[in-house]
# Entry
Amino acid sequence: MNQTITPWEVKGEIDYNKLIKEFGVSKIDKKLLERLEKIAKKKNMKLHHFLTREIFIAHRDLDFFLNEYEKGNKVFLYTGRGPSGEIHLGHAIPLMFTKYLQDLFDADLYFQFTDDEKFLFKKDLEMDKVSEYTKQNMLDVIAFGFDPKKTHFIIDTVHANLLYPEAIKVAKKITFSTVKAVFGFTNETNIGSIFFTSMQAVPAFLPCKLKNRKMACLIPHAIDQDPHFRVTRDILPKLGYYKPSSIQCRFLPGLQGIKNGKMSSSEGFSINMSDDPKTVKNKINKYAFSGGKATLEEHRKHGGNPDIDVSYQWLVFFEPDDKKLKKVYDDYRSGKLLSGELKAILIEKINQFLKEHQEKRKRAEKQLDSFVLRV
Amino acid sequence: MNQTITPWEVKGEIDYNKLIKEFGVSKIDKKLLERLEKIAKKKNMKLHHFLTREIFIAHRDLDFFLNEYEKGNKVFLYTGRGPSGEIHLGHAIPLMFTKYLQDLFDADLYFQFTDDEKFLFKKDLEMDKVSEYTKQNMLDVIAFGFDPKKTHFIIDTVHANLLYPEAIKVAKKITFSTVKAVFGFTNETNIGSIFFTSMQAVPAFLPCKLKNRKMACLIPHAIDQDPHFRVTRDILPKLGYYKPSSIQCRFLPGLQGIKNGKMSSSEGFSINMSDDPKTVKNKINKYAFSGGKATLEEHRKHGGNPDIDVSYQWLVFFEPDDKKLKKVYDDYRSGKLLSGELKAILIEKINQFLKEHQEKRKRAEKQLDSFVLRV
# Structure
């Protein structure tokens, strides 16, 4: 197996168990799920299907975060987005879950837009373009339903007055050797990219600095971002803050199959949050890797394989109803449900999801100002 | 000979001719002095003795800057200070000359306080302390008489909103290989220090960015800062700006002798701008390396050696009157002037200089706000 996972590249079929071991993160176990379910029940909420279906699969120190929360101590959430293009369905996963966590813990969320990162790491990307993506991405994020009173957007180049003075405190404690080992940098890496992880560390303690109190932080993120926070976790106690906790998800598989790593817009096979129903239908019908048999007769006789069928795998992410999902699984397995029919179910599900999103996004523009962190 | 010259370390006896060759800068020649003198005459000013005495000894593209000035195109000056302690007499040299250049060219001056640099490069220095030095240093800088309407202080951590978005544009074009070669960094250098030169580059083009026009920039600085601007000069044309020009001075020798590199406060033998007359007298009498003979008789008979006498060398910096200086030289050479008498001349000169400075500094506090760049 050949897997490459860095914050800037995800390639090959991903063995999550191997990755969890390599990164040194912990699987979310039954005990943690029970604790989360208990908290959810108190809020009349359910355990999110991203948790029961091992989509959010790993964590660091989630227990510590829950301890702090249960003691009644103030906690906060931190996540972010590198604005290098349109938001697509793959990005939606951690965003949906972050919204869930905000409701669950009734917590402030600091949301970082790393425009500097995208500019520095993408050779031909100009800053004007990144700034346009940032604005567009902010509207999409708002559309996920975050609480405007409790959600604070931080844009690296816009909030540099806040971030840079703290980032240098982090940077002073990180050598080139460290980032070389953690991120695979070389002597030809540019010095902005080398510095960047310090900027990504800051929101994990900035609220503590602003409010002058120690607070536990939980970072929901896709597992490829773990290297950043591994470094951050090493440094923060040296600056007098708690190590941030994290909860990490696996990737929405690419349309062309689970062997092709995560869904990536650069490959051209992503479904964007702005796609219209016809585009979605065409993309899924044309590209979604099928677990069905070659002929109708064979399919009816032997059934399809939902484990490799991208449409089914996407329903695992986007169909919250366990019963409905099980029925699709069983029917596809038995051959009762054809590949085209399975795709149709997915198409309807995704289009409904996108329709709601696009409506909310239209109303986001006038909310934008209230989301940007003011200090 | 063993010389180490980086922006953070100057050690050993300095051979300026060798350094000029190594750095690839040009000596200021007669033709340039004549051009400068012509400009000075138009302003009823004289050629500064720092120029005639080869204290400002080297430059990069000074001709280009003068061409632009003579064409009537808008030009500006940029210099800076790393606030890691009190300002001493060594720091006064480029400051005095920058004030002269501001008068000569009637130009805006952008003055950068690199508080981030000092924090990042000095292992045990905390940010609170750097911020205190920054404030104190600003008052000293103001006391040199800069025009409040044309002088703009930039403090790296305070003006990060302005600097960081531009610094990453510089940083994207500099690899670790480059800073490794230019500054002698290693894998154990912290990633903030690695990034820093990008921040020092920004004021060389920020005014062009703010005013949306190309302008020639002249950077007066001590020669140890040349490596930064060598990198800056490589990058700026790629961002659509002129290469900045520079004019570079040698160091005020340390009290203990010209073989000991530049005067350094960390060695404990510096004279600070805040020193009182008695302290100055004691330091010079106690530490200033003498070119005199061992006994009075020998001195009267053979004369002293002004070329190695620190008191005489300091007068080269601080006694603008050529005739007075020549008389001291001749009298000391002949044995007419004793070492103690020479020291007394220097002590009076320095104390007069510091007295005026300290008076101006008292008035600086209420001017501070008007010096800080507002955008």
